[in-house]
Amino acid sequence: MGRAKIPRKSTNIDMTAMCDVAFLLLSFFILATKQKPPEAVTVAPPSSVSSKAAPEKSILITLNKEGKVFLMFGQDTKKDDVIKDINTTRGLGLTDQEMARLGKMTVIGMPLNKLKSLVNMSTPLPPEKMEGIPIKDSTNNEMVDWVRSITNAYKGGDQKQLEKMILLKGDGDALYPDFKSIKYALKKNSLFKFQIVTSSETIPPGSELYNHPIKKDE
Questions:
Q1: Which of 11, 64, 66, 150 is the most buried (most CB within 10 A)?
Q2: Beta strands 69-73 and 59-63: pairing type?
């Protein structure tokens, strides 16, 4: 007696549900991913072989080649507290609405006595047209005031954590006296350590660092 033949049937898998899940995951990652914002103040920093990434939670001091200084606050920093403190300590007379407008600005790069007019402009002033925070006159180095308000906002916290947040990004053509004025503002407020933002480059083959690389825990 012959064996009964089982009819072969083609396997049909419904991929609709899997496609729906894939598109949902793709949409989630697109919406949840933090995009790096465009650089507000363009500078060409010197290069180094360091590969350490700058933290997102940072306070960036930028020095361009003209010697103008700008201040930028990263995400999850106490920007509003800093603005409230400097408004009080320097008697700027900013209203709550004006401080809120200043807090929404990406870049702060004007003298203190011009911040009120800055936030009340009908058209936002682009960073390239800002005067910069005054630092050249040792008797009127306004970065001292800004850094003081930063330390006041973070008072009671870990000093080392605050020092890790302070980033200094200077143009390679900036003059050293301007850089020194920023260092003075930090030192004046007992901030003796900060990180310098540089452009990354590869380690030259045959160099001491190439032959004896520094371990991550060193």
A1: 150
A2: antiparallel
